């Protein structure tokens, strides 16, 4: 695994290149996440694909900035294609990354072979303001976990992925203030973009999700030959954390079905 950097619009962006000699998979995390969240998936499919996970702007080791528009996120993905010197890729996206993935596929259909969207739809109305009240750092991982538990957050692992140690304390590596604007820009109805998708698309939904309703998920995929919906029992918004084995197997099965055989 190599951490690498590239520039787009005066923003330095970081990505993890896990290697592999096969077709490229670009992985896009959700708000408050980071590229390393896809390390476990890559470990399960070594050398079968070239997995590249992006720290999206305002996250991880990428620059924080003032531009969190929809267009800026898509431009970062396009610049990543140019950095990797690839003409086509499979894209996996969760939450924010899922919207970025399908909007990119709608705008650049020739660049995306297949899409895997984890628990996000087209009608979005979420709020990240709760993170503004969080302490800026913690003296131990245990105290951070206890804090998240007190906040009613069940998936502590998701946030712990973004922790880095600085000056003896643990700090979250994302732009809490800037991402409020990012979420506001993400809110809306993006059905027009979804309807432009041409490639084979797998929509994953956790049955306990508070982000993507069953009705919306079914509406998005019903009657579309290039789209499939799979729902996961006992899973919430982050399926790969709640049931990684089923998540992994579903991803691999989809790639086989859509013509990306695992040899």
How would you describe what is shown here?
- By secondary structure, the chain is an alpha/beta fold.
- It is built from ten helices and twelve strands.
- Strand 3, helix 1 and strand 4 form a beta-alpha-beta unit.
- Helix 2 packs across helix 3.
- The longest helix has 15 residues.
- The two termini are 22 Å apart.
Pick out its properties:
alpha/beta, Rossmann fold, eight-stranded mixed β-sheet, two-stranded antiparallel sheet, 33% helix
Q: How many angstroms separate the termini?
A: 22 Å
Biggest sheet, spatial arrangement of strands: 1-2-4-3-5-6-11-12
CATH topology: Rossmann fold
Largest sheet: 8 strands, mixed
| CATH architectural group | 3-Layer(aba) Sandwich
Work out the helix count.
Answer: 10
Secondary structure topology:
Elements lengths: L1 E7 L2 E7 L5 E6 L10 H6 L4 E7 L14 H15 L4 E6 L1 H12 L4 E7 L4 E2 L16 H10 L5 H5 L2 E4 L2 E4 L5 H9 L1 E2 L1 H4 L5 E7 L7 H8 L5 E6 L6 H4 L1 H14 L6
Parallel strand pairs: 3-4, 3-5, 5-6, 6-11, 11-12
Antiparallel strand pairs: 1-2, 2-4, 7-10, 8-9
Helix pairs in contact: 2-3
